[in-house]
Amino acid sequence: MNLTFSRDEVQDLLIAWLALGVAFTLLLERELRSALLGQVGGLTLSGVSQTLVVSLLTVGVGFLLHELAHKVVAVRFGQVAAFKADYRMLGFAIVGALVGFLFAAPGAVVHRGRISKRENGLIALAGPVTNILLAVVFVVPFAVAFFGYTGGIVWEIARRGLQINLLLAGFNMLPFGPLDGRKVRAWSNVVFFAVAIPSVLLGVGALVLL
């Protein structure tokens, strides 16, 4: 398997990663939003910096590995695959976060070549499954932080990492539009329901409970 990245693709991945980190930071830091909108707020540099680090290591990493999983499996099936950032949607994500709303569609892995429904379904499935595996990774530090103390950057990274990856998995397994769930269901209803039902339920639980 020959997995390569062009300069433009690396640039798109880095810009999307940073843009999502900034957008998520704006969403979480009300004081930063207030300051940027010219309102009075208790803005602190340390607080903003910590939130940015947490955002890059959770939503940023979750997004990057989700997309890279699509590419790895696509290349494994002989596809020509590359990530393409959607700069218009990245801008929309940042502007939306300024007013307290985040809808992130930063781009996607575009692949071409002959492919079966099964292979296309497996390429789509790779992203959500990667987020589920990342959520499992974050469960351990989350449990340690929860039973030890609920504060500090370790707690925030663990909590946000678990929450974001469960949300990404659940959202992307919805069978609508360009989402992964639609491609998985077009291949196999059995696989779709086996993955989608727990993913969506865990995603809802993460949104409500974490």
Automatic annotation (TrEMBL):
Source superkingdom: Archaea
Residues spanning the membrane: 12-28, 40-65, 89-110, 122-149, 186-209
Keywords noted in UniProt: Hydrolase, Membrane, Protease, Transmembrane, Transmembrane helix
Signal sequence region: none
GO process annotations (BP): proteolysis
InterPro entries per the UniProt record, alphabetical: Metallopeptidase_M50B
GO molecular function: peptidase activity
Stated name of the protein: Zn-dependent protease
